[in-house]
Amino acid sequence: MTIHELDINNSAGKNVKTGQVWLDWHQELNKFRISNWIEASWQLLNTLIPYFCLWYLMVWSIQLGHSYIWTLILAIPASAFMVRLFILFHDCVHNSFLRSKRGNTFVGYLLGALVFTSFEDWRFTHLRHHGTYANLDSRGFGDIWTMTLEEYENSSKMKQLRYRLYRNPVILVGFGAIFNFLFYNRIPDFRVKRGERMGVLLTNLLILAIAMTTARIIGWRSYLLIQLPVLWLAGGAGIWLFYVQHQFEGGYWARKNKWEPLRAAMEGSSFYDLPVVLRWFSGNIGYHHIHHLNPMIPSYHLKKCFDSVPELRAKTPLTIRDSLCTHRLKLWDENLQKMVTFP
User: Is the pTM of this model over 0.85?
Assistant: First the structure.
C-alpha cells in the first residue's frame, strides 16, 4: 500500500482511526515519545557548558587584545551550539523535552532568552504550522512565504519584487537572520492573545537583563562583538534548516479539500541526511518527516526512531549537495505539482 492510499485525520501525534497498515507502524513511533529527564538534562549540559566556555574564550581573546579574527573563528562553533539550543527550545515548545509541562515552560523561557525567541509567541505560530504546513489555503503560520505560480503571475509588479527579494538567499538567510532574531521576534504576532503578548514582553526583559548583566561585566563593546556574529551565524543556519525542511525537489503542497496530513508529513517534509557532527548540532531535526508524523518525539529520540521503523527509512534523503540547489525553487506549480523557478 502506498502513502497515497493511507489515511490519517491528524498528523499531530494523536491516536486516530486509520487503515491497519498505517496503524501498524505509526504505533511504533509512540514508543519514542517518552521523555527522559536524565537524557534531557544531559542534552542541556552538553550544550550549555561548551556554549558558555566558548563565550569565555571569546571574551578572553578580546580583552587580551588578540586579533578579532580569533573571536570570529570561535563564534562559528558557538553559533553551532546556539542552533542546538534552539532545537532544545523547540522540543520544549512541543512539551516533548521533559514530561512536565511546567518544566518544559520553565526551560523553554530560559532557552528562549538565549536564542532571542519568545516561548509563548513562537509556540502559537509553530503549533499552527504543524497543522497547516503544505496546505495552500492555510499558509502564513511559521512558514517560508511560498506563492503558487498562478498567484505570482497575477500579482502586481511591486508584490513580485517583494517576493523576489524575500526569496533571495542573501536576504532570506543572510539579512533575515539578524532581522528575524533581533527585531521581528521582539514583537508579538498580531493574531496572539494577551498571554502570548506578555510572554514576548517577559522574554524581551530577560534578554535585556542578560545583555545588561553581561555588558556590565565585559563591557558593551565586547558583548556586541561576540553576540552579534554568534546570533547572525546561528540565525542563518537555523533559517536554512527550516527552509530545506519544506522547500525541496519532490515536495508536496495541496489545496485544503485535497490536503492529506500523512502525505504532508512523508512527502512535504524532508529527510535532511546530514553528517554525524552536523546532525548532532542540529538536534536530529533533519529527520523532519518523523517530527511531523509525531511532534511529541523529543529530538534525542528521533535517530533511534528512524533506525527502528523501516517505513521511515523509505523516505528519499536530501543530501547537503542536493539542498544547495533548493535555493532555485521559488514557486509551487499546481499544474505540474512541483516547485519551480521564477518564470
Answer: yes
Residue 332: phi and psi, rounded to 5, are -95, 120
Query: What element of type H or E holds 333?
Result: strand 331-333
User: At 320, phi and psi to the nearest 5?
Assistant: -60, -40
Domain ranges of the chain: 3-340
pLDDT digits (tens, 9 = 90+) for 189-228: 999 999 999 999 999 999 999 999 999 999 999 999 999 9
DSSP state of 31: T
Which residues, 6+ apart, have CB-to-CB distance to 22 below 8 Å? 6, 7, 8, 262
Which residues sit opposite 332 in a β-bridge? Answer: 148, 339
- Chain centroid offset of residue 342 CA: 26
Residues 6+ apart with CB under 8 A from 234: 79, 80, 82, 83, 86, 115, 177
DSSP at 287: B
Q: What is the pLDDT of residues 30-60, one digit of tens each?
A: 999 999 999 999 999 999 999 999 999 999 9
- Angstrom distance (rounded) from CA 254 to CA 247: 14
Long-range CB pairs of 197-200, under 8 A, 24+ apart, other chains included: 197/121, 198/120, 199/109, 199/118, 199/119, 199/120, 199/121, 200/118, 200/120, 200/121
The H-or-E segment that residue 63 falls in is: helix 37-63
Helix 194-218 to helix 37-63 angle (10° resolution) is: 40
